[in-house]
Amino acid sequence: APPISHRSSSYLESPRKGAEKALEKSGYLTKLGGKIKSWHKRYFVLKTGVLSYWKSQHDLHRKPQGIIVLNESCRVSRADGSNTFEIATGTKNYYLTADSQPIMEEWVRVLQNVVQRNALRLLLSREDQKPTLQAWLIKVKHGHSRKCWCVLIGKMFIYFRTPNEQNPMGQVNMRDTRVEEVEHISDSDSDEVSQNIEKAMPEPTIGIFPNHVHQGPTYLIFPNRAEQEKWLYQLTVVSGGDPKAGTQFEQLVQKLMEGDGDPSSMIWRHPLMTYSKEPITLPLTTFTSETLQAEAIKLFKSVQLFMSVVLDSSGIDYHVVLAQNAIQLCLDIPELQPELLSALIKQTSRHTQARHGVQVRNSSSFKHPRSFLMNATNLFSCDSSS
């Protein structure tokens, strides 16, 4: 594949006129503003990545009342109210209401496309930006499948017709999505086509689901599970995730991932993320089966026992059996592997709880959890054939 920087220069210098036209829009919207917050009807024009507004359509020859620059940091989403949407620029939030829901949805769609286009231009113009992953994948959207050259760069998932293509077919800003492994491609717009795709292509699949807009998901079909797991991890790292999905522990981890795991984040000191002498009553990760939930709680107890009993030569068998049983259980039931790793991360945390007056065991007093953590990680990451 050609270097991203070579591809980007042509893309920036020769944009397709039809695509540019699709990123323009004008019309009346009602805007919340003024010294005394109230709603005022204004005429808006979206052009060249800037949203300008006037009192009336007849004032276009005058200086606009205001402009909103739709740079890569903007977020466009539906707001409270049936026909209202929000533009968050990072310094100010704008609330706009359309006359009908279809008009509102069209504005949101076009504005989001502009933000994504601007973010993509900035991303591709950086010489130091290298793709995290790139490969030929089968992309499915609205029941239609197509083999594309897919590139993950920064937080942007971009797909091209070929590796040498200068203009992307499309892109997804991963910060506004959640990523899931799926077994069934579901698309209400084209169920019959989707079912045919599923029967013809039973390969490992990932779904990319938008959080803020009523758009269909994008599915990616992989040639093997190893490739799927590689993409699933990287896409999950850069995705915004569903802020209300998962256990509280998983939501905290998602917030840490959004901040690139900032070691100074106070999230690390949350009681759920730090060492605990008390047993857990609920699993750290999500399970739909009550049987697996019970096994997850037992796993945490095994980790506590492994760490709390002093390791010496006379009692070495105790620790060996504990570790063997826990790791073997996770090898037999792969769904439990994230739970064991989460328990080990929590119980080997170097941080102490943020709450005052709570005594937490110092990390230097952990006698032997690190070997347990390393062995578990290495075992679970090994190729199954070996």
Task: Characterise the protein shown here.
With 386 residues, this protein is an alpha+beta fold. Helix content is 35%, strand content 22%. It has 10 helices and 14 strands. The protein has helices spanning 4-13, 17-21, 101-125, 191-200, 225-238, 248-258, 290-308, 316-332, 337-347, 369-381; strands at residues 25-33, 38-47, 50-54, 66-69, 75-78, 84-88, 93-97, 133-141, 144-153, 156-160, 170-173, 177-182, 205-210, 218-221. A 7-stranded antiparallel β-sheet has the order 4-3-2-1-7-6-5, covered by helices on one side. A 7-stranded antiparallel β-sheet has the order 11-10-9-8-14-13-12. Strand 1 (25-33) and strand 2 form a beta hairpin. The protein is elongated and about 90 Å long. The two termini are 32 Å apart. Mean pLDDT is 79; it is low at 4-16, 188-194, 197-201 and 355-367.
Structural class: alpha+beta
Low-confidence stretches: 4-16, 188-194, 197-201, 355-367
Q: Which word captures the global form?
A: elongated
Sheet with the most strands?
A: 7 strands, antiparallel
Q: Give the tally of β-strands.
A: 14
Give the tags.
7-stranded antiparallel sheet; alpha+beta; 22% strand; single chain; 386 residues
Give a brief description.
This protein has 386 residues and is an alpha+beta fold.
